[in-house]
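Ticket #4471: structure export looks truncated?
Reporter: QA, pipeline team
Priority: medium

Steps to reproduce: submit the single chain below to the structure queue and open the exported record.
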Amino acid sequence: MAVIPLLLAFFLSFGQEVLKLDLKKAVELALTQNREILRIKKEIMSLEDIYRAEKWNRFSPKVDLFADRDGFTLFGRVLLLDFGNRLARIRSAELNTKIKREILREFERQVKIKVAKLFMDLYLAEKTAEVKREEMAVAYVRFDRERERLKEGLSDRVKVAEWESTYRRFRAELFEAQRRYNETLYKIKRFLALDVTKPVEIDLSQLLNFSFPEDKTLDPEYIVKRIENNYLVKVKSLEIAYLRSRAKEQKRIFYPELYATFLSFTPFEDFGRTRAEANLILRVPLFDGRTSFYRERSFLDLARAVELEKRDILERLKEIAYTLPYEWEELVAEYQDAVAFDKWAQENLDLSRSNYELELAFDLGYAMSTKTEAEKRVMEAKFNIILFLMRVYDLMGEDPMKAFSKDHPFLTERVEEI
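Actual output as written to the record:
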């Protein structure tokens, strides 16, 4: 009877539609469904409502009802003219919203890099499992062979224990790689806000087919000219403008305001005898104990502090830009080294196959696992280059997915040294 629920679970899972995900579709899903992005969008909506409130707050009519023992008074007022800081308050709310939007745009860029990284981790975990499976198979055959040789008196217990230990180690590493693969798969589903039980099929072709110009070098000057578009620089510029706007809000002394007021009084003794009057009131603040002066200076000091921070960020980003050519050359060299190793592994595998005999079967097994490891190294080196290009585009405040385009404007022809 216990078999029936298992069979039902199997057929239910078998009947589920498999969602096919390539990198492009996964990025689209992340940008629309990722919970952190949705949270930031809600915060922006809240800030936009504050902006609208500030926009209409000062000039919207306000009506109050007062009651005492003599009667009740209806008092209405509306600001007609504001010769002071209304526009500064509106601009402050608008700048606060712009800061959040800039943070959202950067987070979206980081989401694209994160999705690509998760796809890469999935491939590497799968390839590692393949390597460990081949190594484990070879080690098990050697272990089993030594056990048979021990029965025939041709081996000893030390060799048997040694090969069992090797086999068990590769087996444990295989399970670790399989765990990492499934763990990464679940991370992808959660990051895309998918049901973790939903079956998905990952298409890695965009990553596996990626090609880049090995013969190019990186021009840091191109990147430095576009550092101002980096999100950190933009956010700091907006923060400076916001703090200066807040400073302007504090200027209240000698800033006149013109109000239109309406007052209606109705006594409790005679509800029919209502007295009403309208008036214009000019209000000019003359003195507030220098409160507004200190508040203004506080915001200006904060603005100057952020200006210093912005300069430091610019210098740090320039430092990063000028080190990028060296990182590029290192990554290209690592890729070329991996390709050379893969070429040797293929030649070694071909030789092992041509020399195949029973005694050399283990050599063939090791050659196959070495070839798989070489393929993994090539792709890992290629993935590092993709992530590098994505980071460069993000550094310039551009779409990281441009890393998959054919041409990159910051890569120039390499000049061979004589």
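Status: closed, not a bug. The export was complete when the record was re-opened. Leaving a note from the reviewer for reference: The longest strand covers residues 71-82.
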